[in-house]
Design brief:
It is built from four helices and ten strands; from the N terminus they run E-E-E-E-E-H-E-H-E-E-H-E-H-E. With about 120 residues, the protein is α/β, with parallel strands linked by helices. The chain has one domain: MTH938-like (Hypothetical Protein Mth938, Chain: A), CATH 3.40.1230.10. The strands form three sheets. A five-stranded mixed sheet has the order 5-4-10-7-9, sandwiched between helices. Strands 1-2-3 form a three-stranded antiparallel sheet, with helices on one face. The chain has a two-stranded parallel sheet with strand order 6-8. The longest helix is centred in the middle third of the chain and has 10 residues, at about 50-60.
Length: about 120
C-alpha cells in the first residue's frame, strides 16, 4: 500500500504518521528511503539540481515507474538538470514537480506505478 503524506514543514515531512527529518524517495512498492542527494551534490555542489546520476538511480530503484512526483522543497528550489529531464522523457516517465507542500495532494491521489522524491528544506 502506498504511504500517505500527512504534511510537511521546513526540515521535515510526515509519512504515515511518522515525522522524518530528511529528504525521501518513496518507491512504488511503498518503501520509504532516504534520498541519495550526494549523487547530485557531487556534480552540482547542491542537492537543488537533480543530476542524471540521481535520476538514473531513482528510476532504477523505483522499478521503472510511469511517473515521478517531485516535492521541490518548501520554496520550490529543486529542479531537474536538462540531462535528467531528457532521461525521464526517454523513459516515458512523466515528472510532476511542485513545491513540497503542493506535491502532497497529487502524491496522495496518485495511482499506478508512481515514485516520489521529496525535498524537505528550501
Amino acid at each position: 500500500m502506498k504511504p500517505q503524506i500527512q504534511g510537511t514543514r521546513f526540515g521535515s515531512i510526515t509519512i504515515d504518521g511518522k515525522p522524518l527529518d530528511h529528504d525521501v524517495l518513496i518507491l512504488p512498492s511503498g518503501q520509504v528511503r532516504k534520498r541519495k542527494k550526494k549523487l547530485s551534490k557531487a556534480v552540482y555542489g547542491t542537492s537543488h539540481t537533480i543530476s542524471l546520476a540521481e535520476a538514473e538511480y531513482v528510476y532504477t530503484q523505483s522499478g521503472h515507474p510511469e511517473a515521478l512526483i517531485v516535492g521541490a522543497g518548501q520554496d520550490g528550489m529543486v529542479h531537474l538538470s536538462s540531462e535528467a529531464e531528457r532521461f525521464f522523457a526517454q523513459k516515458n516517465c512523466r515528472v510532476f514537480l511542485a513545491p513540497t507542500p503542493a506535491a502532497i495532494e497529487p502524491w496522495n491521489a496518485a495511482r499506478g506505478k508512481v515514485a516520489g522524491l521529496f525535498h524537505v528544506t528550501c
